[in-house]
Amino acid sequence: MKNHLCISVIVCICLFGSFQTQAKLPPEIFTAEEEVLLTDYLRDIADWIMSLDLGSGQLKNTEDTDQSIFINGNFARVLVSAYRLTGEEKYKNEAVKWADGFCNQQQLTITSQINQGGFWADFPRREIVLYSNIYFGDMGTAATALSVIYKHADSKRQPIYLDCLKRMALFVTEGSIRDPQFLGRDTTGSFIIKSGEHKGALGCGYYRGHLSMEPYTISTATTAGAFMSQMYELTNEPKYRNISTDAVNWLLKVREADGEIPYMLDGKELDTWPLDTLTYCSEAFLGVYRFMNDIERAEFAKDIRPTIDWILRNQNDDGTWGQLRSPDQQRSPGVVSLLNWYYVHIQQDADVKEAVKRFFAYMLVPENSEAYGIKELVRTTGFLGLTVSEILKPDSTF
Fold it and tell me: Which residues form the signal peptide (predicted)?
């Protein structure tokens, strides 16, 4: 009897151990106690966003930029993430309110294939829309936010949101038969570069008064990468997966030997935005990785390591990246999301873990957080809100 009992216990332990292995949660950098602090930090950011009247489309109670589709889109996405992590309906409701207004602001055009396309200008208020850029860097960020909110919208809103997203995808892939803002500029049959050394990259859109079809790093990351990966998730249409995969391949192809990804825009390469560039590229990497097969994931794990090393080498002594409050730093928190993603999905690297913990050791000191610009600088606050969400629950911003 004792022997049978021992065997039963051993079998149970083995089975339970096997189940634990299969159901193993992704590795985490922070303890449960630290995650409570980070959740409170995210809730504080979300409550501040709520105070800005985001749903109106024009921020109030801020001296920073009050109307930008990418800033407001990031804020809406932070609110959805906060809803997912805290269950507080008010966050979701405000994000949905923003999405309603954002859909209402979409401009329509006829594509080169005689389909109805749609776009947003970077500053979409109707009285200034003709003077705003059709800028896929910002548009992709905002449309990705809409695609995330779609998952939490009611049954009446979802078809409306999806139609808007599909119209934008058509505009990206098919361009337009005439200047969509009626300014007499050149047109294109597609904003995606389909051949040559820059195959897979995306042009900027309309930039400073002209059609810009030279590869743009940011639009390739946000629109061709992150947004199209979301479109694949929502529709299961392989064409979107192919576009997003090609975008990521191009981003890695043009990367410097030291791991930095260059900021390319309108035929020029600038060296003032390395962290900004990596934050946006991280959006593409995290988005597209979700749908890679095992072979693609193994290859990507090797390919991304030089960029991880670049991030680690360029961390400041205080745990941050970049010059305090600089435009580049304001868009830098995404590098922390990429480090966390690498630790969770690729390798439990001690240096990566230490870098992430050092960053938040700095940020969780109230004086440091204020100096950094949290709840003051709208770009910084939005990007950091997304990063905190990813730390607390990987993929919670998608």
Answer: 1-23
Q: What is the DSSP string of 95-157?
A: HHHHHHHHHHT-EEEE-TTS-EEEE--SS--GGGGGGS-EEHHHHHHHHHHHHHHHTTS-TTH
**Cα–Cα distance list, 150 to 49, 86, 164 (Å):** 20, 19, 11
User: Minimal CA–CA distance to 284: which of 237, 373, 346, 219?
Assistant: 219
Residue 32, pLDDT > 60, answer: yes
Question: pLDDT averaged over the chain?
Answer: 93
pLDDT tens for each residue of 348-378 = 999 999 999 999 999 999 999 999 999 999 9
- pLDDT, average across residues 250-255: 98
At a CB cut-off of 8 Å and minimum separation 6, what does 17 contact? none
Residues of the chain above pLDDT 70, percent: 92
Whether the model clears a pTM of 0.90, i.e. scores above it, the answer is yes
Whether the predicted pLDDT of 34 surpasses 90: yes
Residue count of the chain: 398
- Contact partners, residue 266, CB within 8 Å, separation at least 6: 204, 207, 208, 212, 214, 216
Domains, in order of start, for the chain: 27-392 (1.50.10.10)
The SS3 call for residue 170 is helix
> Do 244 and 232 touch, CB atoms closer than 8 A?
yes
The closest of 340, 225, 236 to 284, measured between CA atoms, is 225
161-181 confidence digits (pLDDT tens)? 999 999 999 999 999 999 999
- d(CA 206, CA 216) in angstroms, rounded, equals 12
Rounded to 5°, the CA angle 183-188-190 comes to: 135
- Specify the amino acid at residue 232: Y
Give the residue carrying structure tokens 């290859």: 299
Rounded distance, CA 343 to CA 284, Å? 17
Q: What are the backbone angles phi and psi of residue 29, rounded to the nearest 5°?
A: -85, -30
**359/382 Cα distance (integer angstroms):** 16
Let me know if 276 is exposed, middle or buried by CB neighbors in 10 A (0-12, 13-18, 19+): buried
